[in-house]
Amino acid sequence: MSDLAQTVREVEALLFAAASPLTVEDLAGRLPEGADVPAALAELGRQYEARGVVLANVAGGWRFQTAEDLAWLMTEERDEPRRLSKAAQETLAIIAYHQPVTRAEIEAVRGVQASKGTLDVLLELGLVRMRGRRRTPGRPVTYGTTDAFLEHYGLATLGDLPGMAEMKAAGLLSLDLPADFAVPNPEAPALDEDPLEGEAPEFHVDFLGEDEPVR
């Protein structure tokens, strides 16, 4: 058996057993020194491209998942995902497309004052994280999306986010966002914010609160 064929088998075994996507670095760290992980992934992807389970690049890592055209077979065997409220969907969309963003900026775009639990729910679900503090009076916290957000929506990077027109056509967004909203570059540092120093989020989830108009 060739070295590449053996590496393909090893990568296949690791991905099959993994609970979450594995990066090239994760795989290389578990394999013998000199193993050609990119070539093994390419070959593994070729072998699985027409099968019921395919190799997918998600959130910067690799995993096996059901082929898209067979997803309907799983509907009776999987738990229904928790549905976000309209306010939470709009808030998540604003954060995804305009991060890093503060709560006040989110409210300004939506035109309503967010209820107490909207951001807390997104933080609790792991779709959003606190990134840092804006270098402005009051030092407000800024928010951004997480790898769990990318994994949940099947995205490799934020650059794969659909356009606004696509989101509205799919019924995922009814909010009219400004025309200058663009997909952020996840690699670009935010020069107007400082990292959080040992601060942990506190959740105060209130599902009964209603959004109020900003006055």
From TrEMBL:
In what ranges is there compositional bias, type Basic and acidic residues? 201-215
Acidic residues: which segments have biased composition? Answer: 190-200
Q: What is this protein called?
A: SMC-Scp complex subunit ScpB
User: What's in the keyword line of the UniProt record?
Assistant: Cell cycle, Cell division, Chromosome partition, Cytoplasm
Record organism: Phenylobacterium kunshanense
From what superkingdom does this record's organism come?
Bacteria
Region feature Disordered, mapped onto this chain: 186-215
A GO BP term, please?
Answer: cell division
